[in-house]
Model the fold of this input.
Amino acid sequence: MELLLALLIVSLLGMGIAGHHQNRRLRSANSMIRAKNEEIGKLSAQLSESEREQLKYQGLAAAANRISFDQFFLLDADLNIINLNQSAARLTADKDTQGKPLAQVIDSPELVNLAMLAQGENERLEEQVVIGGSNFRVRAQSMAYIGLAGCVGVAMRDITDLVQLNRARRDLVANISHELRTPITRIRLIIEGLFLDADKPKRKASIQSLKEIAMETDSLLWLAQELLDLSMIESGEAILRLVKTPMKQIVDDAIERLASLAGTKNLTIVSHVPQKFAVLCDADQLKRVLGNLLHNAIKWSPPDDAITITAAENEEEIVVTVFDNGPGVPDDVRERIFERFYQADVSRSGDEGAGLGLAICKHIVEAHGGRIWGEGNSQGKGGQFVFTVLKADTDFQQPASEPSEAEPTLELPQSVTPL
Done:
C-alpha cells in the first residue's frame, strides 16, 4: 500500500514538473509570437510609408511632367521612343508615339544625328537645332551611367525668344553704328575741307560748311534723343501728364514745327481737324507722334504735293489720319513697320532715319490707351497712318486720389511692353 502511494506521489510530481515545463514553453512561444507580430506591424507600417512616398513622388513627377517647359525623350538603342513628357508630346503630330522611331515622330535629321552620336559618347552633347520654325537648345546623353545601356536621353528647350532677342541686339548695334558713322564721316570731311592749307576757304563757303556741320550734328542729337526716349518709354520711366487739350491745337503745332522741312520739297500740309474735338493726352508726347508721322510723310511724298491730316470721332475716341501720296506701306510689312530699327525699303529711304520714329509712336499712343496702324497700299497709291486717342470726356483708369483742380491732371507712368 505504501508502495502504491509512493508511486502515485512520484507520478504526480512528474506530471507537475512536465506541466511546468510545458507552461514555460507556451509562455516563451507566446512571447515570440508577440515579438513577431510587433515586427510584422513595423514592417507593414514601413511598407505603407514607402507606398505613400512612392505615390507622392509619382504625383510630383506627373505634375512636373505636366508643367515642364522643357521637352524630354527617352530612346532605346534603336532610337525608338520609350518615354516622353507632355511638353515633348506637344511637338509631335502623332499622339501614339510609344515604340516609334524618333525620326518618324519629329522631322529633324539634326536631332536624330545628335541622339545617334550620344550613344557612343560618355559625355553630354549639345547643339542648337530648328524644328518647325522654332529654335531649340538640345542636349543628348547616354543613359548607361544609370544602368540603361544603349539608351539615350534627349532634353530640349525652346530658345526662339532668346534667338530673336540676340538678333535684335545685333541689329541694334549694326544700325546705331551705321547711323552714327554717316554724319560723323561727313562732319570730318567738311572740317578737313575747311582747313586745307592749299585751299583757303572763303567766308561764304565756310558759312555753308558750318551749316552742313550743324545739320549733321542735329542728326546725331536726334538719334541720341530717340534712343534715350525709347529706352525710357519701354522701361516705364517716362511720365505722361494727361490734360484736356484741343486736337486742332496739337495738329497745328506739329504742322508749324515741320513747315520748313516741308518747304524743302514744296509740300503743303492741309489740316481738316474740327475745333470742337478735345482729347485727354500729354500734348507734347502727342505732338511728337504727329511730328514723326508728318516727317515720315514728307520723306516719302513726291515734290509739289500735299499731305492731309483728318480727324473723326466715335463714341469714345478721336481717330486721326495722316495721308500722303507717296508709295504707301506694302501689305506684307504693315505689322513690322512699328518694330525698332525696321525700315520698309532701305534702298529707297536715302539712309534717312534710324527706324525708331514709328516704334516711339506706337509706345506713346498705346500709353494713351489708343491704337496705331498703317494702311496697306494694295488698293492704290498713297500712304496712310491712323491712330486713336481718347476723347476728353472718356474715363482713363483714373487713380484713387486725384488733384482737386478745375482742369483734371493725371500723372501716370507709361505701362508699355518692349517689342
User: Anything to note?
Assistant: Residues 80 and 101 are 4 Å apart (CA to CA).
